[in-house]
Amino acid sequence: MIPETVAQVEPREQVILSAEQNTEEQYWRLQLAQSLRSTQELLRELQFSEQQVQQLSANDQGFSTLVPKAYVARMQPSNPRDPLLLQVLPQTAEAVSSSDFVADPLAEAEFNPTPGVVHKYHGRALLIAAGHCAINCRYCFRRHYPYHEQQRSRSQWQASLACLAVDANIEEIILSGGDPLALTNNMLFALIDEIEALPNVQRLRIHTRLPVVLPARITTTLCQRLQTSRLQIVMVLHCNHPQEIDAQVVQACLRMQQAGISLLNQSVLLQGINADTDSLCALSKKLFSAAVLPYYLHLPDQVAGTQHFFVSQQQGQALLRSMQSQLPGYLVPRLVKEEPGQPHKTLIPVV
Fold first, then answer.
1. pLDDT band, very low/low/confident/very high, at 320 (cuts 50, 70, 90)
2. Ranges 73-87, 153-167, 168-182, 296-310: which has the least confidence
3. Please, what is the angle between helix 220-227 and helix 247-258, to 10°?
């Protein structure tokens, strides 16, 4: 049976580490518990002056700050334009409203046959495995998602999986969230056990940012469990900038590769962060050196509060053409966007 997930990261005072948990599990959970949880805390960690802290602090619009210190350690101190900082720092631009930017731009609510399941594409279905992440990215396309309505009790998980079991066309389950790897090993492994019991399912795809923002999460126990699964395991990372990849991230990726896990990356084009050829080319090279294949480069979804990150299709096409002129084909990701009601992601032609 699958334990109930939680809607938020556990507060520091609620994290209890049992004696039975191994050292690796304790370590990453402690790192997660010690994450920075306010704009002021984040800016002071980066050595901004008190005047700058006040100037740079903005209303979070109900989407709280959450950043692991392992990720903060890769930011440039006292640099307000650092590309990692800008991904997690609330900005006043988030309060600007536009009719073109809405809470659910992908209309996922229309493809939610039972709580916790999103079924949009033939042959595969997505499970909201967790209602929390290890980091709150300001451009998140699910920043307005009603996770509080999607919490899973044991019986509800059974209902969700039963819904998927009757569809013989489903060969692949996608774990998303939130972030599936923000679950404890016990919770995640119980879920994998249940998925493995579905005879039609052949592949398990895990969409996660934890190997990038909290590489300590990639423990020996996790890799061993995935390696022994009857399912083909695909880990889809989310990395947007080469500065995010340090030695610990490389080590985590190589550990997964050695366990036979296929590693892909999807990035989001973000204005002011990676919408330039140099950053994107460097990202592809660093990913490949870590055994990760650049897979998708997403045009940003038009989510309320993210207008300042937006990159147009024309700009995205120009960037891909420039990448093609500088990189071998296998290092050039596919430019895509998601459109509500379409049976697959829309590939953007680069001509």
1. very high
2. 153-167
3. 30
Strands 117-118 and 124-128: antiparallel
For residue 45, how many other CB atoms are within 10 A of its CB? 15
Q: Is the dihedral of CA 234, 240, 241, 243 positive or negative?
A: negative
Residue 7 confidence (pLDDT): 34
Q: Is the pLDDT of residue 144 over 60?
A: no
The answer to whether 268 touches 139, Cβ cutoff 8 Å, is yes
Q: How far is residue 90's CA from residue 41's CA, in Å, rounded to a whole number? A: 13
232-238: strand order across its sheet: 117-118, 124-128, 172-176, 203-208, 232-238, 262-268, 293-298, 334-337, 346-347
- CA pair distance 285, 336, nearest whole angstrom: 20
Cα–Cα distance for residue pair 99/206, rounded to 1 Å: 33
Show the domains of the chain with their CATH numbers: 1-351 (3.20.20.70)
Q: Could you tell me where the DSSP H helices lie in 243-333? A: 247-258, 277-289, 313-326
d(C-alpha 316, C-alpha 312), whole Å: 6
What's the pLDDT score for residue 151? 52
Burial class (CB in 10 A: 0-12, 13-18, 19+), 18: exposed
In the prediction, which pLDDT does 6 show?
34
